[in-house]
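Sat 14:20. Reprocessing the chain from the morning session after the first attempt stalled halfway. Input below, unchanged.
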Amino acid sequence: MTYDDVRTDPGYQEFVKGERFYRAARADLDREEAQALWVPPPIPKNAYDQLADGVRAIDFVVDGLWTGVAQVNAQKKSGKTTLAMNAMQSLLTGEAFLGRFAVNTTTEDRVAYLNMELTQAMFLEWTVRMQIADEHLKRLDPYHAREHGAVNFRSDLAVEWLIKWLRSNGITLLVIDPLSSIYNPSEWGTSDPNAAYGRFFAVLEDVVRQANLRGVLIVHHTGFSEDAANRARGASAMMDKPDVNWAYRYNVASGGSFTDKPGDNKRYLSAFGRGDVDIDEFEIDYNAATRRLYATGTGSRREAAKVANARRFYDAVRQLTAEGAEPTKADVYARLDWSTSGSSARDPDAARKYAIDEGWVNTRKGPGNSQLHSVGDRRPCGYGDASAVKLPILPATSRSTEARTSEPSREEVRE
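Finished this time. Tokens:
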């Protein structure tokens, strides 16, 4: 049977007719669903009259870091829920987030937490370890999907229930942890991932409006490469729609690949978005006993890697000196298996300079153009001189505070 024969076959024409019926029905259903939660807005005034009513300041939930809908884009197993629960704790207590950023909440603000990953028992046990006072816990309303099922944003009834719960409980701030548990692009009636996320986000915006929320914090995963770890996994719209994007990163162990587990307990947060949010990457450490995170005052992952390599350089100089040598740069680099030339020597050279500048390693002129190295008068932290490492302090932003009165000591037990 030829192609022309197929097209003239009565059975084929019935199939085409059925397909047209299906597509027309799908289009009608999409229109109905798009209008299901639509509430007619008030007729807007002109710009002059709106300005006459006064211009409200941007509502920052967390100064310089979170306004409107903020999305945390984090590497796998980086501690996304720990970060979100630390934000929750600050919103409830008024303590500076990470010991650095002031929060703008009062006892009138209530927090809802859509816990889509942890069991109820684990979530509550972590809450106890965070030592949140009873008066603050009374303003926290957690929903546990493992026990009660995920909230389906594709269901009008589920969305209506969510709005009713938020409004009746006086919720002003919502945490969604994680996005992947409530959003599956294949379920949103389109093969275009950007259009799918746009439809989901439109529903979320309806929830925000109808529940009168001040802000939403969404926890989401990043991609599986060094570059992709700075952005949301999925459609580009997932970075466009939120008001603010946070990037939550870690360093792998020396010699490891991107997909390996973290090399230590340090994490790194940066943020960019509307409202002039622009926070350069800074370091965060962890108190395992209380599950609290805090900004250390140190900068980026690159800075942390430089310090770590400087310690390795110091160790190599110390070992070679103990063996009776006064090593050259090439000798030390050979011991560490570091490159001595080209772009691959850039990071080793920066680490060497740091070790010398800190006084961990001394140098003197050797044969030719060489420099000879020896152990310096100062030692890195942990080698008996706790004052040896000078940590660079992050510059304060116009909207951030450096409130660190509740910051745990750097010697506390860490996970």
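The mean pLDDT is 85.
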